[in-house]
Specification:
single chain, mainly beta, 2 helices, binds 2-acetamido-2-deoxy-beta-D-glucopyranose
């Protein structure tokens, strides 16, 4: 136990991405580079989750989130989650979401993730007018802060806090070398006209997902895992 708490000190010499970033003990239990995944570790970035070329997904066996960061400033996110609606408890919306781009570790401790434009998501909304569709996802995401702790059992654990301070479920390190798709736009996208109002940012073209569908095995169990499961930026 005692020894474990000293490990961060030994790893203090980290490659700095920016001049003014101060890696303190709260960040550098291990570098942020690598692939991280929540809970059951069923979701991972990389070729096992998304096929951006034809905008399909490989559906994981369980919900979760995965983030990867490489040393050249690229990130990738894979998310599979369910959103419930308190007033319509039977209307459980399933979301498969994939995005990648470049990230900046800001001097004030925040992280900004700027997408390449080829991100997309599939929404299954049993109560929606269109119950199953695919749309572009190109939101820039700000994380207020982040921390990495060494868990005596599970090793490095990444905590990300969203723009409003809401925590993303803690993520374990799947590998110190990131498992990512090629770090460039992977299909042709025409830049959307920058919307004047942020409320317009979801006016993406929706198209029916057709045959592509998934059936959550245990919906009851999944409802329990709602909440901080993944980032709230997926709210429709
Ligand atoms: C999409 O691309 C992947 C990877 O090339 C392929 O395995 C899959 O069959 C394709 N799916 C469709 C519906 O075209
Ligand atoms: C929940 O369902 C109600 C009724 O269908 C709808 O008006 C409301 O916008 C939904 N809330 C969310 C967060 O989706
Ligand atoms: C850090 O700076 C960015 C950009 O100015 C800002 O959006 C973010 O809220 C700041 N983070 C904190 C923790 O103040
Ligand atoms: C995606 O977002 C980035 C950052 O805001 C922007 O530069 C880019 O043009 C957007 N791409 C598309 C296809 O909208």
């Amino acid at each position: 136990m005692l020894l474990t708490s000293f490990v961060p000190l030994l790893l203090a010499a980290l490659p700095a991405l920016g001049q003014d970033i101060k890696y303190d003990l709260a960040h550098n239990a291990t570098p942020i580079f690598g692939t991280w995944s929540t809970g059951s570790k069923a979701v991972s970035t990389g070729p096992g989750f998304a096929n951006p070329l034809n905008q399909t997904f490989i559906y994981p066996t369980n919900t979760g989130c995965s983030y990867s960061f490489d040393e050249d400033g690229h990130y990738e996110i894979a998310r599979y989650r369910f959103n419930s609606n308190g007033s319509e408890p039977t209307c459980i919306t399933g979301v498969m979401n994939w995005v990648h781009g470049t990230f900046d570790l800001l001097g004030n401790g925040s992280i900004v993730m700027t997408p390449f434009g080829d991100g997309y998501q599939q929404i299954q909304d049993p109560c929606g007018a269109v119950s199953n569709f695919i749309e572009s996802y190109n939101d820039t995401e700000l994380y207020q802060s982040w921390r990495i702790f060494l868990d005596p059992q599970d090793g490095p654990k990444l905590h990300l806090f969203q723009f409003d301070g809401t925590p993303v479920a803690p993520m374990f390190q799947l590998s110190a070398t990131p498992n990512m798709l090629p770090t460039q736009a992977l299909r042709n996208v025409t830049p959307a006209v920058q919307p004047a109002l942020t409320s317009q940012k979801r006016s993406f073209e929706k198209r029916n997902a057709g045959e592509r569908t998934w059936t959550p095995a245990g919906l009851v169990g999944l409802v329990v895992s709602l909440g901080t499961a993944c980032a709230a930026s997926l709210i429709l």
